[in-house]
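re: ur msg from earlier - yeah i can do the 3,4-dihydroxyphenylalanine complex, just paste it... oh wait u already did. ok heres what im feeding in:
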Amino acid sequence: MKEKISELLARFEADLASGKSPDELRVAYLGKNGATAELMKELRNVPVDRKKEAGQMINGLKTKLEEEIGARARALEEEALQKAISSARRYNPTLPANNDLGSYHPITLVQREVEDVFASMGFTVEEYPEIVDDYHCFEALNIPKHHPARDMQDTYYLENGQLLKTHTSAAQNYIMKKYGAPLRAIFPSRCFRNEAIDACHENTFFQMEGMMIDRDISISNLIYFMKTMLSEVFGQDLRVRLRPGFFPFVEPGFELDISCLICGGEGCPSCKNSGWLELCPCGMIHPNVLTAGGIDPEEYTGFAFGLGLTRLAMMKYGVKDIRDFNAGSLRTLSQFKSR
Ligand code: DAH
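and the outut:
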């Protein structure tokens, strides 16, 4: 029996080495009609006093075969897994870097240009969060609860009671308290409104707010600064017009329009066929707003404006559809590479 067992073991090792699959080996050695089953049958011919020992030897053999076949199966599985992992890793980290430079977003370009012009006129550039509270976005701007002006701004409210900034004016109160008077500051930001989107409306857009507060500031200061800035940005003397406009935080309030640079004033979808683009609401800061900001309206006056940076970028670069700005298309953005 011993001899038969070592013979069988030798055959098994040879089969294992020749690359037979675990299934084939199982059938050939451990199956119902396999080699060990044959050995079991031969137990019949073993003399009674040696039967027990022979039986134990066969069982030991079976256990050894099972272990070896199992180990082979696990090794094959691991090999298949590693193969799958290495074929999934398609990129090669040792390749040289792609030297193709990215580009600034057109709104960033316009924003920086406006910042430069205002900085050269003594304005500081301020930051303020995009998530704000009701007080800063409305209350401090002379828009109390239930004021109809709140309906003009389709606000996204958050579950914690805060909201997404609907306009850059939300930073006015903070900046007045930060510096006191006199002050000159601009504060660009992304703003959000729950608007239906079309060629000239987006729910996410950029504004640049500005404030100048000092003794004896008047509407002529406002007109001077706006005209200077816009002429610089467009590199030409622009046609502008002021219309009366209502905003609770200014008195008087205006709409500053510029002639549409896309159609030259003839009318196109971007200017709603009017030839004018509503670019910049502005006005003289309301005494209540100055007071809320800790500034005495008897002593100081000031102007404020809320420039539509997105609109400005549309006009400057001839972008006809506002949706292009948020589309993330590399074909669009790569056109701004050299700037
Ligand atoms: N915050 C206003 C809006 O987005 C725009 C605005 C109007 C800002 C008049 C001003 C201003 O500073 O004086 O609807």
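cool cool. The beta strands are 124-125, 131-132, 163-164, 183-192, 204-214, 240-244, 250-259, 276-285, 301-308. ping me if u need the other ligands too
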